[in-house]
User: Fold these one by one.
Assistant:
Number 1:
Amino acid sequence: MVVTLDVVLPEESELTVEEVNLSTASLRAGSFHLGKYCEQANNEFMLCRFEEDDPRKCINEGKAVTACTLEFFRKVKKSCLAEFNQYANCIDKSSGDFSLQHCRKTQGVFDKCMLENLNLERPPFGYFCEPRVHDTKRPKPPAEPKAVYPDATPALPDDAERKPARFGSRFYWMTE
C-alpha cells in the first residue's frame, strides 16, 4: 500500500480505547481462558484483517477484541482474583522467560476456579492450532480485479544487428 494524499487516516479519537494495562505474567496466566472466551471477537478481527488487507477497515473489530479482553479480566477479578494472582505471581517469579512448566499446581487451582465460577474450561493442548470455520455476518469484500497489462514489448527482429557486450559476457562461467 502506498501512502498518498488520497489516503484517509482515522482520527485519533477513533483509535482511542481503554487499554489492557496488565503485565506479561498476568496476560500469560489468563491467555488460554482469554483465547477461549474472546474466540468469536478475535476470529472476526483476524478474518477482517486477512480479507480487507487494510487495518483501517478493521478498527471496530479491534475495539471489540479489546472490549472483550477487558470484560474477561473484570470477570476474573470478581470471581477468581486470589487464584489468578497466585498463578500470575508464580509465572513471574519462577523463571526468566515466563515459562508455565513450574506453575502447574497454581494453574490447576486457577483452572478449577474458572470452571466453577465462570463455567470456562481450559482448552485442551493444541486447541488453538485446530482449523475451524468461522461464521460471520460481515459481507465478503469484493474481489480485486485482476490487473491487465498491455502486450509485452516486441522482441528485436532476427536480422537486427547485435553488438557484443561491452564488458564481456554475463555468463562468465561459460566463457572461461
Number 2:
Amino acid sequence: MSDLTKTIQKWHASFKKGTDFDSWGQLVEAIDEYQILARQLQKEAQSSNSSEFTEDQKKTLGKLATCLEMRSAALQCTQSQEDFRLEDLKKLEPIVQNVLTYNKGFPFDVQPVPLRKILAPGEEENLEVEAEEDSVVGAGSPESFSSRVPGTLLPRLPSEPGMTLITIKIEKIGLKDAGQCIDPYITVSVKDLNGIDLNPVQDTPVATRKEDTYIHFGMDVEIQKHLEKLSKGAAIFFEFKHYKPKKRFTSTKCFAFMEMDEIKPGPIVIELYKKPTDFKRKKLQLLTKKPLYLHLHQTLHKD
C-alpha cells in the first residue's frame, strides 16, 4: 500500500470518527476531530512542494476543509441560522474516500479556506518552537491596529425574573512583548469541569490599541447563560490569540480563567497561564513571574 493511500485512509478514518462523535452528541470531540482533519487537508491543499495530488484534487481537499470548518462552527454556535448540517457533511464521505478518482462537481458551493488559519486544538504544541527573531515581527507597527477583525460577540440574553446575567468588560492584558503581537484578540468560552462547552464560544474583535506592556480591548462580552444556570465547577476562559505571519496561522499565546466564586460586580485582575489551554484546570503553569495580568470589569444584571 502506498503512503498516499495510507494518508487517505487515515483521513477517512478521522472523518468517520468526527461524524460518529457528532451523531452521538459528543460535540467537543467532534469539533476537535473536524478541526484537526481540516488542518491536515488544508496543509496538503496549500502545499507548494512536489505533491502527489493534482491541482484539481488540492482544490477538492481545500473545499472539504471548508466544509469541516463550517460544521465545526455550526456546532459551536447554537444561534446560527444557516447551519451546515451533519447530513450535509456525510454526503462528502465518498469524496474523502475516493479523492484520487473523484471527478464530479463538488456538491456544495464553497471555496477552499484561506491560507491564514487557526491551528486545530492541540496541534500547535507539536510545531517547532518559534525562533526568537520571529517574535519581533511587527515591533515597529503603529500603536493602533490597522486591520480590524469583526469578532463573533453575541448580544445580551433577554432578562428573566430573579435571574442574573453577566457582562464582562475585557479592559486590557499585560504582556512583556505586547507591542509585537499582531492582530490580537481573545476567545471567551464557558466550560464545565470536564472542559465541555456550556455556551457558544465568542471571539472579540482585534484589540483597539497597544501601549507599553498592555494591549487594550475595552470590549463587553455577554455571557450566554444566566449565572444561576451555570453548573457547579464551571469557569469562564479567556484565550489570548495573535497572528504569526511567518507561519501563517493564528496561535494561542496564553490563557486565563475565572471560577464561579470570582463572579462579583466590579474590577478583577486574573493570572495568565502558559498554553496549551487546560480547560480541566489540572496542569496549570503561570506564564510569567512578572506582575502581568488580564484586567476585567464585571457587571451583574438582575431583574
Number 3:
Amino acid sequence: MADDSVRAGASAQQQDGGASNEKAVSSNGEVAAGNQTLSKRQRKKLLKQQKWEEERELRKQKRKERKQQRRLQRQNHGEEEGGDNQGARKRPRREVTPSSLRLVVDCSFDNLMLMKDVRKLHKQIQRCYAENRRAAHPVQFYLTSLGGQLKQSMDEKDKGWVNWKDINIKTEHYSEVVAIEDLVYLTSDSPNVLEELDQKKAYIIGGLVDHNHHKGITFERAKELGIDHAQLPLSSFVKMNSRKVLAVNHVFEIILAYLEKGSWQDAFFTVLPQRKGAVAVDKDGATAPEKEEEDSDSDSDLDTPEQTEHNLTLSPNGQLQKSPNV
C-alpha cells in the first residue's frame, strides 16, 4: 500500500513538473515569436516613425516661421517698387450691369434636323452661354422646348450643362414661359426692321440649323402664333456676299454687342465673320445683291478648323474647353 501511495505521489509530481515545463516552453515560444515579429529593418522604421511624430510640432513651427518670413520679404519688396506697380499687376475687373432684356433660343425645331446639325446647334448654344457670361450687359437667357436630340447631345457631349448659371432652361414652349405680348421673333423674312431694342421685350432666336431646307419657317411660326416679328437692321449698315440669315450665336452676340456699344454698325462688324464679306453700306444706302448661298446656320466660323473637329464643353463659369473624352 505504501509503495502504491509513493508511486502515485511521484507520478503526480511528474505530471505537475511536465505541465510547468510545457508552460515555460509555451511562454518562451511566445516570447521568441514576439522577438521574431519585427525584423531589424522594421524596428528601424518604427523608430523613425516615432521620431517623426515627436518632431511634428517642431516642423509645423518652422513652416510657420518660413511663411511669415516670405510675407515680410514680399512686403519689403513691394514698398521698394512702389504701390503703383503692385496695383498694375492686378487684372482690372470689368464692370457688369445685367440687362433686363430677354433672349430666347427656340429649340422646338428638333425634329427638322439631322443629328449632325443638332450638334452644330449645341455648339452655337454653348457659344451664346459663354459670351453672355463674359458680356458687359448680360441678358436674361432662355432655352425653351429643350428635349429630343438636342438634350441627348448635351447629355453626351457636355454633361456640365446642368450646372450652367444665369440661364433659364425650360422644356416648355416659349409661349408658355413668356407672355405673348412681350414676344418678338427675330427672323430675316420679316418685313419689319428692328431699329431699337426694347428692354421689356423677349426676343426669340430660332434654334434651327437646316441649310436652307426650311426657308421662312420661323416667320411662319411667328404669324401662326400671332406674335410680333422683326429682322435686324442688317441691310441698313452692312452689305454682304451671302444671304443675311445668321447663325444663332451670331444673332445673340450682335445683340450683346449692341447693348454694350449702342451702335448697330459697330455691333455687326464686331461679330460678323470675315467669310461673310461684310462691308459698310455706301452713303446713299446702296446694298450689294444677295447670293442664294448656304446660310450661316453652319457653325464653321465658330472655331478654327482644328477646334471644330473636337467636341467642346463648358465650365460652370462659362469658359469653352475641349472635352476630355476626345
Number 4:
Amino acid sequence: MIAMHRNRTRHSMEQQFVELIQEPSGEFENFHRMSLTDFNYLLSKVLPLISKQDTHLREAIPAKIRLAVTLRFLATGDSFKSLHYLFKISSQLISKIVVDVCKALNDVLKDEIKVDV
C-alpha cells in the first residue's frame, strides 16, 4: 500500500469535502462544475447504487466522495493518476469508481437526459 493511502480515513475525506463546501469564494462550484444543491440532488439519486459497505479490512469510500471523484473526472478529464493524488485513492480504484458512478448516473437520469450518439 502506498504511504499516502495509509492515512486516508473516512474522516479525512469528509473533512476535505466540508472544507471545500465552506470556502466562501465558490470553490465547490468551481471544483465540481455545479452547485452544492445540484450535487446533493445527484447524490440523492445515485446513493443507493454507489454506496459500499465497510469491511473488517478497510473503510468504504463514502458515496459523496465517489460522486465527487467522478464529477471531477468528467469536468476536467484529469487522469486517474492525477485524481489519485488529489483524493488519496488508488488509480485502479478510481477507474472502477468512475465506471460504477457513470453507470448509476445514466440509470437514474435516463429519463431526464438525452444522449446523441
